[in-house]
Amino acid sequence: MTEETVSGDQRLLELRNRIDSIDGDIARLISERANCALAVAAVKKATGGDALYYRPEREAQVLRRAMERNSGPLTDEEMARLFREIMSACLALEEPVKVAYLGPEGTFTQQAALKHFGNSAQSRPLAVIDEVFREVEAGAVNYGVVPVENSTEGVINHTLDNFMTSNLYICGEVELRIHHHLMISDVTRADAITRIYSHAQSLAQCRKWLDAHYPNVERVAVASNADAAVRVKGEWNAAAIAGDMAAELYGLKILSGKIEDRPDNSTRFLIIGTQEVPASGDDKTSLMVSMRNEPGALHNLLEPFRRFGVDLTRVETRPSQSGNWNYVFFIDFVGHRDTKNIASALREVGVCASDVKVLGSYPRGVL
Q: How many Å apart are CA 229 and CA 197, to the nearest integer?
């Protein structure tokens, strides 16, 4: 054995011992943090009433600080994800968060729920968006996670329509990069595929790739990508388009990865709950406005935002449920409703609108 080899082995041993020592410090500090979380829970229970254990604005602030303090070599997002899981586990000691999401298991909405709440949250898959709203309104769960828009295919109208009749608030948002994969089961004959299952939106997001690689194969739209994954388990001539989680959950093989037509394809999800969220320092607000059917209505709606310097990020229109040819505007903008200039703009909008409903002010997505 050469001197260089001995020197290298000694250096590795020193580094491993150092890692073991650091791991011990990390474990001790995590336990200390968990004990603080238990103390917080005890204080909240002692005050009585309906204590709020999960605070969206507080969670966002902690994650932002973790990213600001990060000096590498881990990326800011990787650092925030580590803190996300620590916070999720500590919160579960106080009071486990119950979350409903658009299921079944293996959907991108479940992936968004895990990204936002961490793996220690208690999640429940539901069949349709309406059920997610109902479960939160009934108090069966604390929060719901629903998709609201895709960068390729646009807004999810069903989610917007539910806000017309719901009293829930938007408490947060999650943006998820969407990667679609063509996958098969262990009984599939890869050279004999005649049918591809997926959700209609996923089929649309992979349209060009499918035209180039499987132009004559039947495309079957189903309720969800997870449903597509389940169907191919017993069909020798079928494939599915779904995400990583579905492939892992249902034991499928990825035949072709990342087949979405646009590499920046992403979906935005909303966190819905029953409480209004205080300002976090970096927030967005969502608004639903019904306007009188008269000339200049849209100009009258938007002009106060311009005058008070409010940055609009999205304006969508949906038919009103109150009558033919009446429309409701859904507006997103930067800032919290309690900010002075925004409060002034909302007051002026209220003068010209027939109805104004603030759907929520909430922290901008950190992860």
A: 8
